[in-house]
Amino acid sequence: MEKTKMKLLRVLDILKETDENHPLTANEICEKLQSYGIEAERKSVCRDINTLKEYYNNESDYGYEIELSDDNRKGYYMCSRSFEDWELKILIDAVWQARFLTEKKSESLAKRLRLLASLESRKVLQNVTPVKSYVKTNKLKVAEHIDMLLIAIRKGRKVKFQYEYTDTNLDRQVKFDGKEYLVNPYSLKWRGDRYYLIGNYDKYDNLSFYRLDRIVNFSITDIPVKPAKEVVGDNPSNKIEEYVAKSLYNFGGEKIHVVLRVKPNMVDELIDYFGENIEFKQNGSDEYDVRVAVNDGDGLYFWLLQYGENVKVVSPVQVREELLKRTQKIKELYAND
């Protein structure tokens, strides 16, 4: 009985390597089974295939869509999979693009993703992904922190950690003389090639971003987490998503509405940062006014300075004044040369 079960599983593994253009006959499957030390007859392999197909036809969660090629002599192939080749390509690229994963970890994940494709597709997926073009870290710290944060969020526990920065000698130092952050973890976001914890610093009543690659001495406490509803109000998941969407360069702050006067060539940039749910009202021959919702913080001013020649703040007054203060400081910095 054990050998029969193992044979069925091996037949399934072999069929997963097939596709419409590369089917296998029952005899060819028998030959492949021999490499696993399993002797089988053509008829028994056909029975195994019919068993796998039967579960699929009965709409079971364990069935597989296996078809005979148009020319029956060419054999069987796996007709449908959990992922299409293009979907696997996107996932593999994301794995290699993630700088917080080591090269070894990325290769391991990419290999497991390729195993979900047919044998020929695996070769193509490997050949079209230039893995050496990506800069990778040598530390697994971020991956470990993601794992621990998922545990903390699932258990509803606060987390404790210190925060690092890099000094002018390129050495990593702990900020604020080793200050410990006690944080209520709510969400994890991958933005701009960095992973962030979105949570509530226990002493305050707002949300903050924390870069996972800068977190050290991380631990899960036994202290119950403060419910997100107490921090952001009803529908906390939606409120957190909105907070993240309105945070330029991952800086938090109070939500405000800003009216910007922009050049026509700024449309794509505005959509990239604020989404498509914005309206442009013409103001003059070649300028438009647009009202956007954003968090009032450093991220907003970094963005405004980046596009200073093409964007003018119309309102509110306090944003205009703060932007002018920052530009004046830049001017003074160069005036002393």
Strand content: 15-25%
Q: What is the highest CATH level, the class of the largest domain?
A: Mainly Beta
Question: What integer value in Å does the Rg equal?
Answer: 28 Å
CATH architecture designation of the largest domain: Roll
Query: What summary fits the major beta sheet?
Result: 6 strands, antiparallel
How far is it from the N-terminal to the C-terminal residue, by CA? Answer: 86 Å
Helix count, DSSP H or I runs of 4 or more residues: 12
Pfam families: WCX, WYL
Protein name: WYL domain-containing protein
InterPro entries: CBASS_pafABC_assoc_protein, WCX_dom, WYL_dom
What does this structure look like?
The chain is α+β, with helices and mostly antiparallel strands and 337 residues long. It has four domains: 2-78, Orthogonal Bundle (Arc Repressor Mutant, subunit A); 85-133; 141-234, SH3 type barrels, CATH 2.30.30; 250-335, Alpha-Beta Plaits (2-Layer Sandwich). It is 41% helix and 23% strand. It is built from twelve helices and twelve strands. Strands 3, 4, 5, 6, 7 and 8 form a six-stranded antiparallel beta sheet that branches. Strands 10-11-9-12 form a four-stranded antiparallel beta sheet, covered by helices on one side. A hairpin with a 6-residue loop joins strand 6 and strand 7. Helix 1 (2-15) crosses helix 3. The longest helix is centred in the last third of the chain and has 19 residues, at 317-335. The mean pLDDT is 86. It comes from Acetobacterium fimetarium. InterPro entries: CBASS_pafABC_assoc_protein, WCX_dom, WYL_dom. Residues 144-217 form the WYL domain. Residues 255-330 form the WCX domain. It holds the Pfam family WCX.
